[in-house]
Every structure is written in C-alpha cells, then in structure tokens.
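Wait, can you check?
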Amino acid sequence: MTRREVFARILKRLRPYAPRLVLIFAAALVTVAAQLLVPFFVGRAIDVILGAGNVDFSALGRYLAVIGGLVAVAALSQYALSVLNNAVAFGVLSDMRAECFSKLGRLPLKYLDSHAYGELSSVMLSDAEQFSDGLLLGFTQIFTGAATIVGVLVLMFVMRWEIALVVAVLTPLSLFAAKIIASRTYRMFTRQSELRAEQTAFIDENIGNLKVVKAYCRERENAEIFAEGNERLRACSLRAIFFSSTTNPVTRFVNSFVYAAVAFAGAMLAISTAGTALPFTVGNLTTFLSYATQYTKPFNEISEVIAEFQNALTCAGRIFALSESEEQPSDGGLPDLENVRGEVGLDGVTFSYDGKRDVLEDICVHAEPGQRIAIVGPTGCGKTTLINLLMRFYDADAGSVRVDGADVRDITRHSLREHFGMVLQETWLKEGTVRENLLLGAKNCSDEEMESAARAAHADGFIRRLPQGYDTPVGGEGSLSEGQRQLLCIARVMLLRPPMLILDEATSNIDTRTELLVQDAFARLMAGRTCFVVAHRLSTVRDADVILVMREGRIVERGTHDELLARGGFYSELYRAQFEG
C-alpha cells in the first residue's frame, strides 16, 4: 500500500469529523492571523519612537493595547485548536481500534491461523498509538504551518514585493531537501514497524508458553533469538531516526540563509529609500525580520514531525491492511436453523487448508438424531478438521455438510453454532468470576440452574471451596488447575443443553476418578442428543453407536466397538496398542 493510498484512507476516516476539522481550520486561521498582526503593529510602534523627546505616546499606547489584545486572542485560539485537535486524533484512534477489534470477529479463521497473535496485538495497540501520536502532532503543525506560510507571503508582497520575492525564490530549497529525505525514510519506518511486530509476536509467544520454554531449558536460546531481533530493530530504528532527523538541520540552514537574505535586502532597501515618498523604515525592517522568522519556523517544525508523520503513515498502512482484509463471506439473508432434530450428514466432503494437500478426502458420515458418533485415529488424521467443518469454521472444498437436511452453507452461522455445544481439550476462561464464565452463553439462567449444571459436571464442590465461591475471579493461568478449568467448561455446556454436542478430548485433563464421574454426567447430558466424540483414549468411546476410524484424512473403518475388534483391522491395532502393549 503506497503512501498516497494510505493518506487517502486517512482522509476517508476523517469524514465523520468534518465539522471539528472545520473548527480546527478556523482556529488555526485565527491563531495565525493574530500572530502575524503582532509584528506589523510592533513595527508601527517602533516608527512612532522617533528619538529622545520625540515619542507619540498616544499612538504608542494604542498600538500596545492592540498588541496585547492580539496576543490574548492568539492564546485562546491556540488552546481551542489543541482541544479540538486532541478530540479528533483520539477519536480516530478509538474508532480504528474498535473497527479492528470488530474486524477480528468477521475474519475467516484461515487469516488468524496465518498471522501471529502478537502481530495482531501490535497492530491494534502499538501501531494505533504511533498513528495517533503522528496524527495529533501532524495536524497541529500542518494547519498552523500552512496558514503561517501563506499569510506571511501575502503580507510581505503587500508591504514590499522585492523582499517577498527573495523569500519566495529561496523557499523551494527547504521543501526540496525535506521531500528527498522523507521519501527515503518512509521505507525505513515501514521496515521498523514490521520488525517491531515480529518482536511483539515473539514476546507474546514466549510469555504464553513460558512453562514449555523453561521445561526444555530454552531460556538462553530464546534470549539469543530475542537479542538478534532486538539488534535488527535497533539498527533499523537508528537509521530511520537518523535520516529523518537530518531534515531539521538542513531546513534550519536554508531558513537561516533566508533570514540573512531578508536582513541584507531590507537594510539595502532602507538606505536606498531614505528621504523618498515611500521609505522603508526601521519599523518595517523589524516587521520583515519578524516575518522571516515566522515564515521559516513552520518549515523547522514540519521537518521535526516528518519522522513521526512517516512512522504514522506506516502504522496506518498496517492498520488498514488489517481493517480492510477480506472478510468471511456474509450469510445475511439466509434462513436460521430452527426446530433442530439433530440429523447430521457429511456427503463426499473433501477439504484442504492450503489448497495443495487434502486433509480430508471423500468423507461420508450420517448421524441420526440422538446418535453417538465417536471419531478416533492417530494424530493428524483429520479428526479436529472434521469438527471444524461441522461448526463451519471452514467450508468444505467439495461435498456438503448437512444438518436436518439443510446444507450448512445455506443457513446462518449463528443459528448453526447456537445448536452445537463444544468442550475442547484446550480450555478457555475469560477474565471474570466463575459465575460469569458459566453464564457465558446462557445469560438468563437462574442460579439454581447454574449450580445444578455445576453439580452435574462435578465442579460444584471445588467451586464452593474457592475464597468467594461462584463469585471468585478466575481466568489467569495460575488461578485454577487445568482439570478444574475443564470442569467449568463442561458445566458451561451442560447449562446450555444444546441438541448437538461436540466433545474433543473433553476429559483429557481430568484424573481417572473424576473422569468416571464426568463420563456419567456426560451420559445423562448426551441422552437424546446427537454427539460427536473425538478421543485418543479408546476406553471413552466403547459405548458409542458408531465409531469412525480415520487414517490419513480418510475413514478406513466404521462400526461398533465389538464389531471393529472382531474385524481385526486398524481399530483393533489401536486398541491393543493401548491396553495390551
């Protein structure tokens, strides 16, 4: 995405703030006008001081009063400009963060699978903050700077076009130098932003998996990897800041040259016009020197924010890349799934994550309402992928997935998923109390129903032993054991009582004694419901109505536990490997 495209998108984001932008522009004009009129009246005040005993105090008093009023107006308008500018900058920041967060919910899972979580966090937090800082600083300098430059030039040409022409001729030197440096630093800041995102992703990965890092004694190796990435970020940042910082001294040199040229031209003009009808007075020279300073100051200020503004454009580009990513196809207008009986079918389903290697090939399954289907097989055979297709986290490349005869692509995702209950091997609890986690999908359930579900999941006992019972804050990794966290997830599904269940190694983190109790609870929960049970421990699927045995993306066997053992095939090998090997 080019800088021009990024800037066009920024302007588009600013449209809702058009009224405030108009006020910002008006406040900038008032500020600049007041500041530019002050030197004019200072020059007039100097001209009424003709010498010792020859001072027009009446005129001097009027000029001083006008100058004081202009200074007060400039101060008030400058304050209003800052307030309005802050409101716009942080309003845009808030909007973009909200837009990015909302976008995450509409992105397909393949996007999240291909981007590190730390990188996404960096875009929404760090890049958005950098963008806001650059936008805040840029607005102030650009509005006031542009107005000052135009205003000074107009006043100079009105007062003395000869000196104004000197300024106008020398000004492009400063602009030319700034443009060359800015074009080079944009690429550097783009690389800096990419390296910063890599570092954030690496830090996020290490913090989230610190136990694994320590268990495998990877602290030193990871520190070396971090140091290497940190050094690349340091070097890149140093180059970007160095080259962008050269803008300021270059423009200051040009501006000092402009000031000297104005002083010399003004002095020569004052000498040559002395005693004429239109003399160039000392007060006029003072005014022009003040204008020369005010004229060159915006170039210095703008050059100072070029680095920030280039960085802001880079960060904005990364934000727009996220916010404008291709979304999951909308299912608006499709009918909802209603009056679900629980009949599920997969007809000739083939699926690939990358479009190159099929993870599932020609899968055919039919589950009657209330039937219990177990899915077993070695790691990587496609069991979880099959579950992802049932929940429509992904769509099949070929074939169809049907619920009660309706293709899942022809109904809304929301209505499909609200009729499925899932308990996964990886537990997830949000930051909040036990009560809030249990009621995550069932806001209107009573306390009695919640506690009944917790008792059915054998979680009520340890919950009541917590410091505040059901109102105890949980969510952190160390607040509960993995087994306790999984019991809460099981209770959460039991509270919903959906017509279809998916259990993906749902008891993998529970001790054997508790597992027997939970299996009994599951048996009551699964009664009359269509269930898909993914398991490695084959002891948990003996009572399934149908066991699907998967291998390398295909269903190689199907039948009951006794039928598959009697057949002596791949399932029999898996079973004997667990219980007789």
